[in-house]
Amino acid sequence: MSALSVSALVCIWVLLCFYGGVNGYGYIKYNTGSGIVEGKLNVHFVPHSHDDVGWLKTIDQYYVGSNNSIQGACVENVLDSVMVSLLKDPNRKFIFAEMASDPLSLMPVPSACPILQMITRLLLGSIGSTTSSSCLLQQWQKMKTDCRRILAYINAKMILWCRNGGWCMHDEATSHYIDMIDQTTLGHRTIKNQFNITPRAGWQIDPFGHSAVQAYLLGAELGFDSVHFARIDYQDRAKRKQDKSLEVVWRGSKTFGSSSQIFTNTFPVHYSPPNGFEFEVSDDFMPVQDNPLLYDYNVEQRVNDVINAAITQDGRINVLYSTPSLYTDAKNAENVSWPLKTDDYYPYADNTNAYWTGFFTSRPALKRYIRLLSGYYLRASIFTPQMSLLSLYAYELKHILVLELAARQLEFLAGRRSAGANTYSLGDALGIAQHHDAVTGTAKQHTTNDYEKRLARGASESEAVVSSSLSCLTNSTSKDQCATTLPTLSQVDIPVQQSYLWYGSSSGDTDPQCSGAYIFRPNGSPPTVVSRAVPLKVVRGTLVDEVHQQFDSWIYQVIRLYKDKEHAEVEFTIGPIPTDDSVGKEIITRMTANMVTDKVFYTDSNGRDFLKRVRDYREDWPLQVHQPVAGNYYPLNLGIYTVDKKSEFSVLVDRAVGGASIEDGEVELMLHRRTIFDDSRGVGEALDETVCAENRCEGLTVGEVKVEKEGGEQPHPQPWPKWAPGEHWKSREEEPAMEVLQELDDGSVLLRLAHLYEAGEDAEYSTLAKVELKQVFSGKMIKEVKEVSLSTNQDKSQMKKMTWKVEGDNGGAPRAIRGGPVNISDLVVELGPMEIRTFLLTF
């Protein structure tokens, strides 16, 4: 959202450059190069980009500035003008976050880049190029090279800073953690290769709430020192402003604790400029008039306006151009104790009746498509120490559809080709799709269509890779290598009642807030049961039994019970949702078990950790309940479960959805939505999809309802079954997981391994796991193993972490278990509980 904020903040930044008293016909330049000044109130001025990778317009329309009847925004012009301004004054700073709009990957042609041509002509000598300006006009490739040199020069002066550095500013509610890592890796490798820059700060200013996985995995484990954002619940912000706890040390992982903590800065207000400084074409603003010959010369007045907007207390101030990293360095140097944060920032509301929990489900067909292609691209393949890669794929070819094979891993096994089809375009499309207005389902319809086209084209090219690789793999594998077994578990079944209902979408009342793409606001009436008498048909087979149910003409369901599986699978078809009664509808399925859960349930964080949720409760502040339904919804990427003293009931999902436990013993999932009105959060359209992937939303895998018995002891809840993109269930023996195996452009191979169990989750499997690389890559000679950061942009041994003091921390928490260094002689990788390790291999 709010792609317009780029030029507004740039204008404020230019404003401060020329502050000073009038001296003849000029003015004294404000000294912005003095850095931090002791004894003064230091105001850090952080000009930044916010270039949406699609929202009201497509990513390309935003970049070139087309389709301006929707929104007047042009990233290309911003980049050109910013680079000119940066070169004028080395004290200036500007941070750029979204690499999918990176000037190197989307460098404009010469005719569209006159400012860069001018800079090139002026600076060729100082940068060291011997190319004439006439050659630049005639040879685009040479122009592109010189533009790179200019940008490298700017970065060498440390005035253009890459923050976050991912392919996009990903969503934190509806993105799977593997997709978050992968799009970040794509961006980090791009700027590392082009600029040799390693981002130090997370810049998640616009996502609609913030996850625990973002804090420790996409923060500390990336090597970030800090994360900065704007959107937290309005009640939470009010309390934190009062007790001065907007800035915290965030420990998002129970397993890793302080070893993966990160300094977290929440803005006191939104990320937009102060009132009166929105310099967009459509805004009513007072321009900066910096010519002393003008009667309305107002530089000093406007600078004072900025300062007054930035501070509320008296005292001497020092204003400096800054960045998130410089600000974090200054905070760390204070050497004070900070409040501790341990959970997440969900759900997020910006007003009494405005909970941003609708987007957890919005556009379920798109969410499903992204999840399917994610599995196709980088399916989290499972192997055991006894299973080589080739035997693994023989097993998968026998048991899994070809479309669910991991294209990148097949590309590696068959040999990556320098020409022809490759998997890059699918990786690019999936990276863009993680944007906080893409996978969320909160972009305009034509932009959503563009996301889907990119994904389809990427999938088509990757299919060619898969097709050319399968023959090699199948011919290299014997049937004996395909054998594997699943553990046998004792079960205690409990009855579960399932029904379909719908909440009426609010069209506003005394509070005009409507339910829409972002906001879930039911109209206050109890949910309507779709049907109380549901005819069913039972079909029995040798491999699977099916129960077919027709709840209404637009809701159909099939429950499958496989003879050799330990779970039930529910496939539903919902849509088109009828709105001929002029009522928007939020469709849920509710499952009720006879359990005493005491308001407690558990939901996943980006498909990785599970967090405890308590209905109508927030750990960080006394919650005032205004929306008892929407305010208790949480994002699901993996699933939700409830537990009591006798049993556990768990539900797994095949795409991002919203879920809750509104009553004890109940679990409900929102599966589809269709609203009549826009919710006034900028997209300007009602969420009015008429079909869901050809009127069919397939999926919803329901976890088995059972507990495990051991001897004569009382039943206890079974540990959560593990699952990853590609819909592959992991048994306990299939641990750890190979999450990525990919040959890179330089010939090295990216390998990422993950432990699947949290500390204390299971007595047997929450322990140190080992992977023998010699056995995994049998038949290949590994020459070098280099452990790197999660996004591969720095050696793991060179990563440094800041030390932070935490209020009330006595250092008594147990130390996290992590694997040791890899010895080149035996090539055994160790992984502690929940640990993810990334390596670059050379064969």
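That was protein one. Protein two is written in the same sequence-then-structure order:
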Amino acid sequence: MTPEQFTRAWHALVSRWETLAADDRKAADGLLADAVRNGLPSHAGDALPEPEAEVLLACEIEVIRRARAMKPRRYARANKELKVLRDEQMDPVEHFCRIGWRWLRSPRPDFDVWWYWSEHLDPTHDAINPLLFHVLVGRRAGLPTAPPRVAPRTGVLPPASGPRRICLYAAYDADGIVDDYVLHYLRELSRHADVYYLADGVMPHTELAKLAEVTVAAWSIPHARYDFGSFSLLATELVGWETIDQYDELMFANDSCYLLRSLDETFARMDARAADWWGMQATKMDFSRHEGHLAPVPLDEGKRFHTELEDWNPHYRMHLSSYFLTFRRPVVADPGFRRRLGAVVSQGHKELVILKYEIGLSDYLIKAGFDFETFVPDLYPFHPLYSADYFELVARGFPLLKRNFIGENVGTPDLGRWKERVLAQVPDAPVELFERNLHRVAPADKLDRTSRVHTQLNGLVDFQRRLNKKEFRVESRVSPRFDHWWAFPVAPGEPSLTGNERAIFEEVRHDPSIRKIVLTRSRTVDLTGENVVTVPLDSRAGQELLARAGQVFVRHSVDLTFPWELDMDQHRVIDVGAGLPRPRANGEQHPLSPSPTAVRRGRARPERHVVVTTSALDAMPVETRDGVSPGLEVWATGQPRHAFLLRPEEQLPADLRAELADLRALLAGRRLVLWLPAGGTRIPGLGGTETAALADWARRTGTVVGVRSNADGHLFTDLDPLLLMPRRFPDVEVLFREADLLVTDNSHYLADFLLTGDPVVVLDGADAEPELPGPVCRTGADLVPALERALAARTPDEVERYTRCRDHLVGPADDGAAHRVVEQVRRASLSDPAAPPTVRVPNGRRPATA
């Protein structure tokens, strides 16, 4: 029975079971008992409507219980790290059917979920529980539930004359560039292999051109399947097995590593070892210091190391990491290897990519008898590339440095001296090259915390522990509050302080009477001024400063801004992100009412005290005012960020002027069409013919299309669009100032852009605005004509409509809104009727001073 036939028959069985259960429970039980005993009856009729998900799940649980196909108690014991099983909050059979099989947990030791799934079902789809299929179909067909144990065969040696290698290189760069450290690595790799490069994302042609001398071919394609997605696309589509078969060895490598030294020793050492495949080092997560394994053991001994945990959870199985792997002819020719590499699909979580493809591939090859070797001759506890053991490996000739070891590792002390420690072993390692990349792409808050973890004089490690949620709630309640301490947290998803928060900060930047606390996230924010402090939000210092700030400027709400609960009685929370007060769509949560999280926590009050808008509350439409929480103050000051659109360029902050200069250099005199739809918007009929017409129009008119996401960049790949990503251009106002035309369906973008007076093309919908300020594009065929109409001279009627739309969406606008907000805060602080909080200072703590 094929998976498709099974699905039809299963839905038919569940529908019959649901109908019977409503009137005759005994008959319903008999139906399932018969299916367990005799197998799933086929369904030859028309496909029935799919039963509801909870009905399907309930029937699945009942079938597996009746078949006694699981070992529930042992399953719960093997997965005791899961709170729902440890505390008996969920039945083990229900957990497996609801969650466990999707995460490849075994229902019993002799049932390997991912192996069974890959062998007997379709590993590119997750609609069928493999154990359910086995109970109803596979058991009667005699399908094995786990791979047969095959003794390792004697590995092979490469040709004595030296192997011909092909390397599939997987890359990803958030800014869409080919970094210098990648060129450094590929230059060395290309001495030993023919390199084929694929970046998951969109890269300009000028960036890919950098690779011409170090690769045979290079592509950039967004696929969201991580490194194994790139390996899969290269092997099956872009390069092809026919080309790969011309080589003696197939390599996988990626850009997660920095190259410290030549690879000559690596290849010389491994060419002398008989193996079907090899990697740099082996990992087995249950071989750890936590489990009592304090020292490395020889690899041959490690291969024999087995625990019960790995029978229940593939996370604990031996595997070779995919950052550097080499496969010889026996593996490359294996149909199972090729089938698995060709079945890589996008996963909802990165951990599933590791479990299915990295660990899964290693597990398949090991159990199929393909012997392996590693450059590091021992099995180290945990993962030696992410522990203090790493520097011992470097001393033994290890050639690579994992970026995340430095950038996101708070478990290893003294990494603040990583350059010094690397240079002590490899004096000519280009550490400055690596550091530049680290500061560009590594999360700044994590990098900062990693660098601060250190060994103290007493030998103990200071791990820079942050307050947990409960501790922060106490800190927020008992700390002294200073009204002249103003906190500016970077909004979630933003690389730096932008928009209204940034404009308000600029207004008080040089005021020494106000302490400005800038709380950063993933990027370093370099803002100077009088009495300014900049610290990572996710740090102990950030927590303590936030707890003392009297004024907190957020974009939307505290729940969306902070990972901890702020005591709303101790701070004035000013929402500067609500912007335009807009009516709600049917069923939509009101933007100024308590969030679902606040409701779950039992808070009746909203998550802000003040909201900054363009219109006074009594001037808002009734349907907009409805739902605004009582007691919420509305400050109709206008939008502070409009100053960045309306002020002369010389009055902009220095970093915004630098962004403008960078953008103009990219444009090189070309006209800019800024493509900025709401997330997920797709235009019907925008295909190859339409994008070709757009490319032709752009060439004829000296125009370039600028995009803000990889998905939109992929849409216009043939145009070689400008990648105006938020990491490089965080301030959208800079793009608005320079753009000649905006294409959008987002009313907030539309409203701000109308202040420039430049033309717009409105994508169909546009938040259901009653009147639109420019041509409408409903399909791909409309796009070029709409652009031409928008850029043509406007008629008096079009000018009048444009003005009406601007007045409707924005109202009166000037560059003084930030000043008005600051004055409102000052007045509110002076007239605040609330008594100062009672400060209780725990023993051993001193309150911060103003």
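Residues 581-593, 621-627, 833-850 have pLDDT under 50 and may be disordered. Keep this in mind for the problem set.
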